[in-house]
Predict the structure.
Amino acid sequence: MGLRELTNYIRQLASQGYDYPSIQKFLLTKGYSQEDINKAIQISYYSNPQLEQFISAQLDKGIDRGQLKNYLLSYGYQPNAIDSGMSMFPQHVEVTHHHMFDVSNKVLLVIGGICLAALITLGLLFFRPGGSIDVSELLDFEINLDTTEFKVGDDIVFSYSVFNMGSDNRFDLRFFFDIIDEKGKIVSRKSQQAAIETRLTNTVSIKTNIDFIPGKYFVRGKIKYGAEDVAIAESEEFTLVSSNTTEVKPPVEPPVEPPVKPPVEPPVEPPVEPPVEPPVEPTGEYDDLTNNEIIKILEDKSSKDLSDAAKVCTQLTDALMQDFCYFELAKITNNTKICTKILKNYTRDNCVDRTAKINNDPESCKLISKDSTRDNCFREIALNSEKSELCDEISDEFNRNSCYMASALRNHDYDACEKITNSLLKDSCIHIKNTEQEGDSS
């Protein structure tokens, strides 16, 4: 059984409720090596079947592994998930054997365990998550549903918006939209073509039929520019219900006697509140300017008066252009407060992540809504400020352990080893600590 088959078998056992230590003991009794089991469990634990399917398709097209990894990193995928997915499809390398050594199975097992621990340690030592995505260099792609419940036979109606934040050029794009069920199967697809210069908004309708099974679904959209996939987005989950469901009427309750009214108290005069200033209506004064012209105005005004520069953004009538304006103003001033004015979660998170790291401000990380971006924010500041206790704020267990390990190795904060929950990683961290202390004492 190869690595891919062994990994799939471990996934099957895990889905049946078996924990990883029990699976490991069982496979050892079946003759599998400790090294293969550890590698397959690691892939299974951090794998993403949909990501593996995408990686397989791109590798079959001849896409370079390094280029593919950088592409996935730019869309927020974690390096450990990418590496696990790529390890399912190893490169074919010819190896010439010059010598053969007669080594016992026990020795091979010990050597394999040491190598595995070393690989994990080195991987965490040199692993540096990529910086926040530079929105000015990407197509910002989003899919929004009109409602989260449809009936079989209805049209699945949704809208999408694309914002080109890095160029004034015109691009001819191809859009593909898939309806995907709970098992990850594509049940319907629709494609269309459109051109974009700065922004594009459109509505799509996909018809359902009697072959659709009631359940949970979501929409996945993909944009192609030429032969290259340049953006992927997913909608929130929606429910498809049977079209012949009947309305359930609530039972008729007996009339309830009205409660006895308390004596009427004299009215209390409300406190006088100061008048509320009406919101400033955008004038559209800067709507016809290019992105670079807006940035130049922001640079000039922010050097004199920040509030005057912020008014430029409020005068833009388009919400996406307002977000772009606030993002660029925050980049110029490194002011996290400006980021909070951005409406779109994706753009606001990246803005806050950038300014928090520059200002070394872990409190700002708490403003980030997306878990992976917030975890990365805490990790970078923890390492740069040599404060391993900031790793405690990371929600994902693997990334939290990675932060503790990196704090121990880079900043020699070996107290962080005790907080690692993965036994193999914790033992490796303590071993490195003891080795360094023995070297210092000698």
